[in-house]
Design a protein that fits this description.
The protein is of the alpha/beta class and 189 residues long. It contains seven helices and five strands; from the N terminus they run βαβαβααβαβαα. The protein has one domain: 3-Layer(aba) Sandwich (Rossmann fold), CATH 3.40.50. It has a five-stranded parallel beta sheet with strand order 3-2-1-4-5, sandwiched between helices. α4 packs parallel to α5. The longest helix is centred in the middle third of the chain and has 21 residues.
């Protein structure tokens, strides 16, 4: 039986990827470790929705603690980095290192992430970090660029059809701040 641990950031980013992975793996287990998501109400909302969706899809779900303070510690000094900048790299590394560690400790054959489905994320960076962390932890990382071949469009449509809430920022407090700045500038301008 082949098993994969899939890092997920939210329910609406997951349906297409899970569907594809189920073609290859007997067991797809979801893993929610996202200390970057702010405010905490958003974190809880995303986790609750993911839990409900996972239950409907008969997908095992492993959750980890909300380590917001740890996230702020590792991203300190990077508050003004743009999306896809150094802060995102550190954030992705933190989450994938934890996922690789969990996959290795629990005996999964491989691990992966849904993060590359986002048009706002750099798949090459995510795949590099994932492969590096997988090599360190002795667990294979599934490299992918899930947004390719209309992956983002397909998963967005699937999420919409399922009635899943799609957030309009990556999750971190700085992304939320920048989104609000753009909205205010648009209103003012």
């Amino acid at each position: 039986m082949s098993k994969i641990l899939l890092h997920v950031c939210c329910a609406p980013c997951s349906p297409y990827i899970v569907e594809k992975l189920r073609e290859e793996y007997d067991n797809v287990t979801l893993y929610f470790f996202n200390p970057n998501i702010h405010p905490e109400t958003e974190y809880v909302g995303r986790l609750d929705e993911l839990s409900q969706w996972a239950g409907k899809e008969s997908l095992p779900l492993i959750t980890d603690e909300y380590a917001a303070e740890e996230w702020f510690d590792v991203t300190r000094g990077m508050e003004d980095e743009p999306e896809r900048g150094a802060r995102c790299g550190v954030c992705i590394d933190m989450r994938l290192e934890r996922t690789a560690d969990k996959a290795a400790r629990l005996g999964f054959d491989a691990y992966g992430t849904v993060l590359t489905v986002s048009p706002h994320k750099n798949a090459a960076t995510i795949n590099f970090v994932g492969a590096m962390r997988g090599e360190e932890k002795k667990v294979r990382f599934i490299e992918a660029d899930w947004k390719k071949k209309d992956g983002f469009k397909i998963t967005t449509q699937m999420g919409r059809e399922m009635g899943l809430y799609r957030q309009d920022y990556c999750g971190c407090v700085y992304s939320l701040r920048d989104k609000r700045k753009r909205a205010f500038a648009k209103l003012a301008g």
